[in-house]
Amino acid sequence: MIRRTMLLLAFIAGSVLNYAENHSGRTMEYVNPDDTGNVRSLWIENGDRQIYGVLNRPVQAQGRMPIAIVSHGFNGTHHFAEGYFAPLAEQGWMTYTFDFPCGSTRSRSDSNTMNMSVLDEQSDLRAIVSYFRKQPYVDPDRIMLIGESQGGLVSALTAAQMNKEVSELVLIYPALCIPDNWNEKYPKVEDIPDTTRMWNVPLGRRYFMEVRGIDPFKTMKKFKKPVLIIQGDADKVVRMDDSERAVKTYKNASLHVIPGAGHGFKPKERQEAIEQIKKFVATQPQGKR
């Protein structure tokens, strides 16, 4: 009996290892329960690009649930969005946060920032939305995008491209100024060097070539669903004028200004932003829209 039990355990262990080896980079790798949800590592493919992320699913999860997909800013990682897990789980939302490939020197997806591309990041975000729309545990009519800084620009552009697939949009100090800023820095194509260092992060020429043709305000107006923009009035990186213009450009948008907050919120400011997001999602109609 003991020998038979040992053989069974060995078989199970071998099967688990074989499953992990064959599915690494494509499935949820581990489960880490906490007070609000089950935090799972989840890789999503976009062609030959492998996107690392973390999914938080509420403990009380049953059936199809809404999901918030959170995009980090320039040289950020998925870690900045972990503060959304508990608040959104309390309202019955799953949260997926990820590392853009080449989006950071610390990205688990790909840390080569010389290949950073706003267009690639849009492609990655579209792939993530498409992935979750096919999952049996996701409500395909409740997929919200949340984007911070450059991730806000990417989320705004992607929501416009996926107006039917995205239900809500939250922009946190969105860097809608990126195209204008770099076009002012490099007014002519020949002005763009092979390498530019931004906050000590190396960027390739392609990044600047691509943003030259982006017009965020022309594109974003295609998104007709509810939008919440949050920004501090002491932001020295992103212009308040751009957020005010965005509110007027969208069909259904509101702007919440946090007094004294800069580009990157302090704990109390981030808590205020989270409370605004909670109110925003709570007031949106349920079901297909």
What does this structure look like?
This protein has helices spanning 2-23, 85-90, 118-133, 150-161, 178-185, 205-211, 216-220, 240-249, 267-282; strands at residues 28-33, 37-46, 49-58, 65-71, 94-98, 138-148, 168-172, 195-198, 201-204, 227-232, 253-258. It is globular, with a radius of gyration of 20 Å. Helix 4 links the parallel strand 6 and strand 7 (168-172). It has nine helices and eleven strands. The protein is α/β, with parallel strands linked by helices and 289 residues long. The strands form two sheets. A nine-stranded mixed beta sheet has the order 1-2-3-5-4-6-7-10-11, with helices on both faces.
Question: Any descriptors?
Answer:
289 residues, alpha/beta, two-stranded antiparallel ribbon, 26% strand, globular
How many strand elements? 11
Radius of gyration: 20 Å
Mean pLDDT: 88
Protein structure class = alpha/beta
Total helical segments: 9
Q: What oligomeric state do the depicted chains represent?
A: single chain
Please write the string of helix (H) and strand (E) elements. HEEEEHEHEHEHEEHHEHEH
- Low-confidence spans: 1-35
What would the principal axes of the Cα set say about the shape?
A: globular
How far apart lie the N and C ends? Answer: 59 Å
β-strand amount: 25-35%
Percent of residues in helices comes to 25-40%
Taking the sheet with the most strands, its summary is: 9 strands, mixed
Biggest sheet: strands side by side, in what order?
1-2-3-5-4-6-7-10-11
